[in-house]
Amino acid sequence: MTCASCALRIEKRLNRLDGVTATVNYATEKAQVTVDGPLDPAALITAVENAGYTARTPEPSPRAPERGVRSEGAGSSASDPSVSETDAEAPELRALRQRLVGSIVLSVPVIVLAMIPALQFTYWQWLSLALAAPVIVWGAWPFHRAAWVNLRHGAATMDTLISIGTSAAFVWSLYALFFGTAGMPGMTHGFSWTLERGDGAASIYLEVAAGVTMFVLAGRYFEKRAKRRAGAALRALLELGAKDVAVIRPAAGSGTPIETRIPIADLRVGDEFVVRPGEKIATDGVVVSGASAIDQSMITGESVPVEVAAGDAVTGATVNAGGRLVVRATRVGSDTQLAQLARLVEDAQTGKAQVQRLADRISGVFVPIVIGIALVTLVVWLLLGFPASAAFTAAVAVLIIACPCALGLATPTALLVGTGRGAQLGILIKGPEVLESTRRVDTIVLDKTGTVTEGRMSVASVVPEQGTDAVELLRLAGAVEHASEHPIARAVASAALADEAVTELPPVESFQNHEGRGVTGVVEGRALVVGRLSLLEEWSVHPSAGLLSAKADAESAGQTVVLVAWDGAPRGMIVVADEVKDTSAEAVTQLKALGLAPVLLTGDNRAAAQHIADEVGIDEVIAEVLPAQKAAVITRLQAEGRVVAMVGDGVNDAPALAQADLGMAMGTGTDAAIQASDITLVRGDLRAASDAIRLSRRTLGTIKGNLFWAFAYNVAAIPLAALGLLNPMLAGAAMAFSSVFVVGNSLRLRSFR
Fold first, then answer.
1. How confident is the model over 428-441, as a mean pLDDT?
2. By mean pLDDT, which of 83-97, 200-214, 430-444, 544-558 is the weakest?
3. In this predicted structure, what is the pLDDT of residue 427?
4. Contact 558, 611 (CB under 8 A)
5. Do 280 and 264 form a contact (C-beta atoms < 8 A)?
6. How many other CB atoms are there within 10 angstroms of residue 237's CB atom?
7. What share of the chain is helix, strand, coil (3-state, %, to 5)?
8. What pLDDT, on a 0 to 100 scale, did the predictor assign at position 67?
9. Using CB atoms within 10 A of its CB, is residue 718 exposed (0-12), middle (13-18) or buried (19+)?
10. Is 469 a residue of the active site?
């Protein structure tokens, strides 16, 4: 594809197929296709070929499988973000560079001779023809070929304008040389704004045809280089993974485990592999033995290494900065976190923002309108009595100055760079429509556990009722909590198992989870109730005044209390604490600076929630909310006229994340939360939420700036050309610069911090 109108034509052709919804992205050169029914890639490829282009479905990669149909324009080989500079992209750029260099060498003398009359010698016109002809035929061949292919399919694109403009200037010059007086000895030719000399002799305009070709080739070369740089972040993400791995497998014959180095594609779930200091972890897994510090900066953007030991989960593509580890693979290939992150980024880059759809509609009719304006210009100049050469000059300038490429590149290049930079910082923006949401948000709801706090609950103290043994209280409570996945339940069960007096936890029968309130079950013949006061009261259990007083003291200190009862009597309480993240207070300050009102949302009691809120600087607290009620809270805030963002990490946060105008999931959370969100914060640091909003707003601002330039350029330039105020060669240079400017402006997002 060579311009936005190419992308739009392919998109229309695909969407004519039954049950097909397609989006074609000019910058990434990919089509993302949704099919309602059986998928037939061959039919999709045939549709693209019928439009005059070629396409292929990429082979699945174990590192980052691609989805969608790649479309390649006539006369253009599309770039693939999953290959390196030395693969598919380098030959295309190299060929384009050779064509550009050759055109420069031949065009510059032609332009100089036309501009400086003192250098014009006898028969200089024929030297100009000899130098310009290869440029106009060979240098501009990609434009002529694409224009011909488009013509065969009844379409017109940017290449059509360039081909018509340069060919017209060349044919006019040939006519003047062979049938006019321009080829006579001694005839001079100056760099003028008309095509006719004062004495009525026809002039040649070889410098226009050669110069426009040179400038457009230069613009296309630098545009492709810039687009390549724009996708560098995604390619870097795709290439992070290890290429081979030292797996531990039994030796043939002896059965003794030995290290064998194999390609990463041969690694299977359950394999154990060795990671030495300085090596990348081959895939997602669990540490079997050893201890080390892991540098996760390439995945999360966080520079501080994380300590891991046996039993800890590790992520593929992170670097072992310390000791030797033996890791058991839990996910390989397309299931790894790296591959999933790459897919999220790629899907975001393939999508289209709403603002881009207007530009696409304009691009779809742009070329025919420009050709119409050029013809009208020619006719009007002739009717007003101007020489044919002057009318011809103005018409050619209109053809060459117009540029739909800038419109087509305005949104996708900014999105490409912005989402790529986000991936480097541990921020995954799911799609272009998310950018609009970040601009409008005025309230941000923060889930407490795992978002504002560490989410790693630990038992602070055990307070038994009189006559109850503390160890027994913890053992029985741990047994029933062991069947739950709640963070508080895991903390109680872990504390019970860690007690030296507890050898093992007894089994639980008749276990029941009372969502948001606690658990019940039968352990060793005793019916246990473990959870909130409301759950105990439901079971007609009423704690003593002393226990209630101790409960109030603990909650006022920001701790969570789990009450324990069995056989209908209160037995004591277990105090659980969660540490506030070191960065949460700073993150809240940053969010306020962005004009957002933070709200703390939690299922904890109000006293504990208020303590956490005061510590980090949050004024509004919504506490004692059951998991099923979180989405209703978001709805209520929206009903008040607020535009709400939600940050959470648990399964119970997924409905609220989906309900919010902007959902942000901590990457340390569950897959359900991540799938329901619009933005994923990989590094689990709340400051990433403010970074994500700043980056999204900056990307949206860049898109709008690009679109303004692209529209303003064409609105101003085309009338100037039609009025005869632009020389065609200068028009070609300006047209080439417009696309390079848009891509260059987008590249500024790479410096986002």
1. 79
2. 83-97
3. 85
4. yes
5. no
6. 24
7. 50, 20, 30
8. 39
9. buried
10. no
